[in-house]
Amino acid sequence: MTFTSVVNGSATIGSRTVASTNPARLEEVVGEVSYGDRDTFVGAAEAARKAQASWADVPAPVRGRAIAHIGRLVEDNAEALARLVTAEIGKPYAEALGEVREIVDTCDFFLGEGRRLYGQTVPSEMADKQLFTFRKPVGTVAVITAGNFPVAVPSWYIVPALLAGNTIVWKPADYSPVVSNAFFELFVRGGGLPDGVLNLVHCDGPDTFAGLERSLQQGLIDKVGFTGSSAVGREIGALTGRHLQTACLELGGKNPLVVTPSADLDLAVEGALFSGFGTAGQRCTSLGTVIVHESVHDEFLSRFTAAVSAARVGDPTQDVLMGPLLDAKFAERYEEFLGWIQPHHTVVGPRGRIGADNPRDGFVGDAAAGLFYHPVVVDGVRPGDRIFDEETFGPIVGVTTYRTLDEAIELANAPGYGLSSSIYTTDPKDAFTFRDRIGAGMVSINNSTSGAEAHLPFGGNGKSGNGSRQSGIWVLDQFTRWQSVNWDYSGRLQKAQMDTVEL
Ligand code: UN1
Fold first, then answer.
1. ipTM of this predicted complex?
2. Which of 438, 420, 128 is nearest to 285 (CA)?
3. Which has the least CB within 10 A, 91, 188, 442, 484?
4. Active site annotated at which positions (predicted)?
């Protein structure tokens, strides 16, 4: 079966077919996908534009009910969808099921929002006049998402955008096309969405850019939601800005985890293990660098490396912490980072591809079949080292030491990202100081850097984004625009600032 783009409710065959393979078993083709091009994207934007006014006319509570139905259908199909996530991107099944749960949580939150979507009444400075605000949909939204969270992250955009009365062109990641079609079907069927309200486009990066640019030039796209690398985010932001539209950018992270002298070290090790190597380190919220107080460094490192050696790695359909890397592109990136290890770094344990000549004790399954790599801990990283400064997007965690909390915070902020962060401490003063001075949009106290809940603002600062926030009520500011209304029932022209009532 070949999976295709779906534009205005119709399957749209493209000019070439690409196979999507299972990263845990590279021989296994999960599905064939027909790739469109720039014009497929533009066609989808036209369809979305055409469908928008009537979708916005559907009363918001009814749109909320559509979201409720989507949530239930996703819940009923959770296991099948999670199995597909595992097959196509190699995410361990328990995490994949958690990811599907995140869609349901998002639907649960927004289904009631259709009955709120509040505006405000505002007092006027003049007599016999009322002021109001209304939230209006932005219009048509292009959603471009990454493959590491192939269903949860798209739902963070698509659910609130639909609820608010927008129509959508969705371009999913190249690594997860088959799962995208399954997600798309559940949304269209569950929500009973009219043709053109949600469109799915498969095309490559250059065609996506060309299609987005053409659609922006033609006034077909009012907003872009993008999750992916900081480098591509910059280009999307620039392109959108040139056409006077805005982008909601959710980009990379180099997320720090600070371990203070008072920390519960076992808890900190557990948090570092999960956020460093869960999802094979391929979350935007994955742990980048452990910043540990010099007095507990040796103890932390020995417990951490013992935990890393004992962690189950292998077949993602089994109970493992870490499966394969998403795609060969990220395997190359991992190798490149290993090449940047400096003489002053200490690497604990084996590194590189897991195989007969580079085995891992307790590996689950057949390592040679997929993109399986050793989890790596690099001790002694400092600012200026690429492993300290740059997002690895793979199973490589740096460790460095600090003497004062000021220094720890400076190190935590140094790479210039600002997505997630964490501190392990039993001293409330350390926790509050860190919370106050960290540049990240998200802070965990005695919890790991990853695993945000679906109804708190999610987003970053600096190289991690443009300050936009997803999730919860806050994301509505991305998908609605305020309309101000002034209603004068005085029967005469009252001029603001000039006819203000005097005391
Ligand atoms: C991402 O990697 O793009 O907080 C999103 C987390 C997840 C979402 C990660 N809920 O780790």
1. 0.95
2. 420
3. 484
4. 250
